[in-house]
Amino acid sequence: MEQALRETLKGYFGFDHFRPLQSEIIQAAVEGKDVLALMPTGGGKSLCYQIPGLYKKGLCLVISPLIALMTDQVQQLRKKNITAFAIHTGMSRKEVVNVLKTATHSNCKFLYVSPERLETNLFKEFLPALGVNFIAVDEAHCISQWGYDFRPPYLRIARLREELPGVPVIALTASATPRVQEDICEKLSGEGENRFTVFRQSFERSNLSYSIFKVASRITKITEVLKNVQGSAIIYCKTRKHTKELKDLLLMEGIAADYYNAGLPAEERNRKQQDWIRNKTRVIVCTNAFGMGIDKPDVRVVIHADVPDCLENYYQEAGRAGRDGEKSYAVLLYNENDLTALEQLPEQRFPSMETIRQVYGSVVHYLQLPEGEVPGEYYDFDLKDFIKKFGLDITTAIYSLKALEQDGWLSFNEQVFVPATVRFTAYKESLYEYEASHADSEPLIKTLLRTYEGIYDYPIGISESYVAYLMKTEAALVKEQLFRLHADGIIDYQPRKEDPQLMLTRTRIRIAELQINMKNYTARKRLFTERVTQMKNYIAENYQCRSKMIGNYFGDIEIKDCGVCDNCLKRRNNQLTRESFETIRLRIRDTLTEPCTIPQLMTQLQGTDKDHVWTVINFLTREEKIQMQEDGKICWKK
């Protein structure tokens, strides 16, 4: 079996060997065991379900919350001649039916599904015919309400297992504390016994140096870092506004930079991302909307211009540096205002019940939904327009929506990007006749057929701008012709969709009657406060190895000091040599000819490293060479 798995790896993905722990995880999955795989960012999680999915007969159902990542994975698999589809938020019923029918009647190996789709009647209707033999749960920490990114739709996966008895599960995550790991296994075991085998890759990144700097001027320190560390860089900011401001400042310093956030049009985001990946742009300044699923191994430095709210986010984002194994840097900048802002986060992130009711009322009025409206329909939801019309604070609105979502009242997806799709529906004979009578459409038809493999078999994601580039024409003209081909029954064309989506998941009730589970809500707030405290402790720590702190946080207690973080380097530089020890010992002995207080001793030894002095004092005390008198002074024992 091991040889066959390596052949699958080589044949489809071009790799000769598995990365550390991949082989063990894959073999356990192929043997039918339930598996939880904890692998750091860039550790190769996707192959851990893709290889078993290809090796086993039937279809692998992949559950993922990230639409952009789903669509990217599907395109990458198709390029390798592997049949894959995706069903997610924002797709019409007709599109979902087409995908499910095609997946059922083809040699489909991977079907990516957003968790919201799992319990729809439509999906349940097709489920028995899909031939599912393996379930992969990506971003598995989302199933735990004790995690940092709890998403209630993930709880439906346990019920899915009841529909597919005996089908093994592999759960994958890069960041889960021991408590969350345990919760993932329990939730995914359903009512049965927890039979999960847990694999955890070491959190050690020997090539990645973590550093923290307290700064008065962020741009000054960022410029200094970028001038000292050559190569590709990511700078993370908390707000969209800050990304553009920082990009402008870097350009003024002569550094090739661009900015990226979820507020930009999808095609502009894609262009910026590609320019950075191809090293046309050296530095990308972004919010945390950037980075998921991006495989760029040669990032030399990741800088956090603002403090993240938890170690989970920081670890994932910082971990995008140095995936090629070369020396890289993760730099975090802060000032006292950042620490104050961290302390205030729990109150901001967990609004009062009164505020949550107000936002719920605003939502149902904005969508004009009457009492008794049944759940299940997605609505375009313009967050900026919503806030403006109801005079809401954006932070309050977003976290009230989050609270409603986590209690199961609605589903809100702010970052929806569904690419345009095309599928040819006319038979080839009809197509020839159409081209003969519509000569102006022939260049577009031929470009689509030459560029997008499989466009006759299933809807293929296309870029109208790329097609326009190939045809040396305008994107607006391409869209116009696509609509005409659609109207004439030659193709099925679905334009791209970027509007945020909101769906009620419970029947619309009177606003005054709205309740949420306050016990769970309060517990989540308490755990969030603990995560904020851990982040503050990480920043304040100036002795312990930073890599070790992160590893311990995620349950890796065997991790060793990295030797390359700021704290490890400081300790190494301050290491007390035998010669220095003896010099300090003699100075202490000579100074203590008369008893004195420790502050007086320190004054006498001014110019000597204080940490080294304390080390020697502690040693001499243990050896009973010096002793403390009743008046608080110390003296040398003769």
Number of helices in the DSSP assignment: 26
Estimated structural class:
alpha/beta
Return residue spans where pLDDT drops below 50 for at least 5 consecutive residues.
Answer: none
| Overall mean confidence score, pLDDT | 89
What is the terminal separation in angstroms?
74 Å
Strand % is 5-15%
Examine the secondary-structure arrangement and name the CATH architecture of the largest domain: 3-Layer(aba) Sandwich
Q: Characterize the largest beta sheet: strand count, sense, and whether it forms a barrel.
A: 7 strands, parallel
Classified in CATH, the superfamily of the largest domain is: P-loop containing nucleotide triphosphate hydrolases
Overall strand count: 21
Helix content: 40-55%
Mind telling me the CATH class of the largest domain?
Alpha Beta
Return the domain count.
5
Radius of gyration: 29 Å
Description:
With 638 residues, the protein is an alpha/beta fold. The chain is 45% helix and 15% strand. The strands form 5 sheets. The protein has a 7-stranded parallel beta sheet, with helices on both faces. It has a 6-stranded parallel beta sheet with strand order 8-13-12-9-11-10, sandwiched between helices. The radius of gyration is 29 Å and the shape is elongated. The protein has 5 domains: 2-200, P-loop containing nucleotide triphosphate hydrolases (Rossmann fold, 3-Layer(aba) Sandwich), CATH 3.40.50.300; 208-334 and 541-560, 3-Layer(aba) Sandwich (Rossmann fold); 342-416 and 499-529, Arc Repressor Mutant, subunit A (Orthogonal Bundle); 420-494; 574-636, Winged helix-like DNA-binding domain superfamily/Winged helix DNA-binding domain (Arc Repressor Mutant, subunit A, Orthogonal Bundle). The longest helix is centred in the last third of the chain and has 23 residues, at 518-540. The protein has 26 helices and 21 strands. Helix 7 (156-163) links the parallel strand 5 and strand 6. The mean pLDDT is 89. The N and C termini lie far apart (74 Å).
